[in-house]
Write a structure and sequence with these properties.
heterodimer, A: mainly alpha, MetI-like fold, globular, B: four-stranded antiparallel sheet, 9 helices
């Protein structure tokens, strides 16, 4: 063989790259892996056809509850027949177009904001306008729209609302708490540490209970605060503490030299944080932050205990109807699917964001 | 090290002091790092500080822009005394450029954004003007073609030249260099030193902590030798290298000049 052979265009060995290569290395790489693969395949082969038959072939989709009892498979009718209640709760039936329109506006805004190049000041105005429009649409009481009290709001819009405002409230508060905890002023630091440790020491349920039961006791007679708002504030205050700790981790991960470089340019504290430290720190903590956001999204379902009808509660209400009671599995699968779609989208989007933000920084 | 221009010291320092340090002390906990530093640096003067590690050279220049706080004595930079007044500190820092051993570029910003950050936010300069100036200084450090890249995409030598340009964009009256070539691969040291020599030609006031003795010999007006938190010897490069007086200086020189 020639010593100085030209290796231009030389490809890696075929067995390492193509599908077969992948199967060989990942599924049958060694005796143990091979056995594991075979066992898994066997289990899938046993379960999948039955599940498929139950969910799709022998299932019924748009019958009434009686017909469901005779069906061999799943009764998706429980969802089809109650879809509007599951999604919108006790919102007046003939007004369901309003929350529906709100959700369309919301998703349109979210999709529009996905692109990072659109993150400009104008986008904030668009959001404020959109949120105001959604709020007034839900509330009504002008033109021909009848007024709908917030106690009748429910279902998916409520879940989305609690999570969305929870997110945009808790995140900045968490960042401020994290900065305060690293502050050189002892008083500020003590307040932040005290707050974070206190909140982390109590379960979310108890915070929600306090907001709905204990807190009103301290209000003067005759003054009441909307229960949704109280739950909302409880969420924000609760998750801010968790976000604060995550952000603190990010702040500690930014090398000290970055602070010194910013200082030596003459940037003041606020500029240093906003322009140099936080952009790096927040990027580092995207994975754990998204973890908290997803947790928060799912934990909004705890508002059932203070009698708010979020998505999970409306689903439960449907299957507490004796007619539909036998089909709780289908109903819960549906609710789970909705939660999954949102959580999974958040997770995917955060991965995309992470990739975009790491351009040029290895 | 092959330094091309040996005539770079023809310019003379002025008689107006840029930095005055009077009996300055600093402790890290109980450790007495700087034990009474007295030093006056004139405008357009170039000073090289050398000495064994742990002698306090880096700490000394970091005190000049208050990255470290001194605990006794006085430091006066460009007529302003360094106290706890944060506004004064920020003002001085804006006038004093600093180049670090580890470059400390902002990795989330492009090269151009690294350079314009200070001018835009501290000097309140319009963006277009700041970018124009940034490009001017990038030309100067021979790296204008990399303006749109991120620091992570550049070699160490290139990054350090960007760091120098970033400081220059603030149009500093004084430049501090804290071992600017110590973290570089040997083949990149020259490109950074060349830029520093060009800067010296233009009459920049410089305080450089370095072990590049070729640089010290050809550029410095004065070479200081520090040991155990004190300035042990200060002299012109000729005297310093050819005729060192202090025993510790002699020992140090014999160890680094093979």
């Amino acid at each position: 063989m020639e010593q100085n052979q030209d290796h231009n265009g030389l490809k890696p060995p075929l067995s390492k790259t193509k599908v077969l290569g992948w199967i060989k290395t990942n599924l049958f790489g060694g005796i143990f892996n091979s056995i594991l693969t075979m066992v898994t395949l066997y289990i899938i082969w046993k379960i999948l056809p039955g599940l498929f038959r139950w969910a799709f072939i022998e299932s019924v989709w748009s019958t009434d509850a009686k017909a469901c009892r005779h069906a061999l498979g799943a009764c998706w009718s429980v969802i089809a027949q109650n879809l509007r209640f599951i999604l919108f709760g006790f919102y007046p039936y003939d007004q369901h177009w309003r929350p529906l329109l709100c959700m369309f506006i919301f998703f349109a805004l979210v999709l529009y904001s996905k692109n990072r190049r659109r993150w400009k000041r104008a986008l904030a105005y668009i959001w404020v306008a959109g949120l105001l429009a959604m709020g007034s649409l839900m509330k009504g009481g002008f033109w021909n729209l009848i007024s709908v009290e917030s106690s009748r709001w429910g279902g998916l819009p409520l879940t989305l609302m609690l999570s969305f405002f929870g997110l945009i409230g808790a995140y900045p508060l968490g960042v401020v708490l994290a900065l305060a905890r690293r502050s050189r002023l002892p008083a500020l630091k003590a307040v932040s540490v005290g707050y974070i440790e206190m909140v982390r020491g109590v379960p979310l349920i108890s915070v929600l209970f306090m907001s709905s039961v204990v807190f009103p006791l301290f209000l003067p007679r005759g003054i009441t605060i909307n229960s949704i708002l109280r739950a909302q504030v409880a969420f924000i205050l609760f998750f801010a503490a968790y976000i604060a700790e995550v952000v603190r981790g990010g702040l500690q991960a930014v090398p000290h030299g970055q602070y010194e470089a910013a200082d030596s340019l003459g940037l003041n504290y606020a500029q240093t944080m906003r322009l140099v430290i936080l952009p790096q720190a927040l990027k580092i903590v995207i994975p754990p932050t998204v973890n908290i956001l997803i947790t928060a999204f799912k934990d909004t379902s705890l508002v059932v205990i203070i009698a708010l009808y979020d998505l999970l509660m409306t689903t439960k209400t449907v299957i507490s109807n004796p007619q539909w009671m036998p089909f709780s599995v289908e109903a819960y699968i549906f609710a789970a699917l909705i939660y999954f779609v949102f959580s999974f989208s958040m997770s995917r989007y955060s991965q995309k964001l992470e990739k975009e933000l790491s351009v040029g920084t290895e | 090290m092959n330094i091309k221009n040996t005539e770079s010291r023809e310019s003379k320092p002025t008689d107006t002091p840029m930095v005055e340090i009077i009996d300055m002390h600093k402790w890290f906990g109980d450790f007495h790092v700087l034990r009474g530093i007295d030093l006056v640096v004139q405008k357009e003067e170039r000073i090289v500080i050398c000495g064994p590690s742990g002698s306090g050279k880096s700490t000394l220049i970091r005190c000049i822009n208050r990255l470290e706080e001194h605990q006794r004595g006085r430091i006066i930079v460009d007529g302003v005394e360094l106290t706890n007044n944060i506004k004064n500190i920020e003002k001085i820092r804006a006038e004093v450029g600093m180049v670090f051993q580890q470059f400390n570029l902002f990795p989330h910003l492009t090269i151009l954004e690294n350079l314009t950050l200070g001018p835009i936010w501290v000097r309140k300069m319009p963006k277009a003007e700041a970018e124009e100036m940034a490009m001017f200084y990038l030309e100067k450090v021979h790296i204008a073609d990399q303006a749109r890249k991120y620091p992570g995409q550049l070699s160490g030598g290139q990054q350090q030249r960007v760091a120098i340009a970033r400081s220059l964009c603030m149009r500093p009256k004084l430049m501090l260099f804290d071992e600017p070539t110590s973290a570089l691969d040997p083949e990149m040291i020259k490109e950074v030193l060349d830029v520093m020599i060009e800067l010296a030609h233009e009459g920049m006031t410089m305080i450089v902590v370095t072990h590049e003795m070729g640089f010290a010999r050809s550029v410095a007006h004065r070479v200081l030798f520090m040991d155990y938190g004190k300035i042990v010897e200060a002299n012109t490069p000729e005297e310093f290298f050819d005729n060192p007086r202090n025993d510790r200086t002699k020992l140090f020189l014999s160890q680094i000049l093979h």
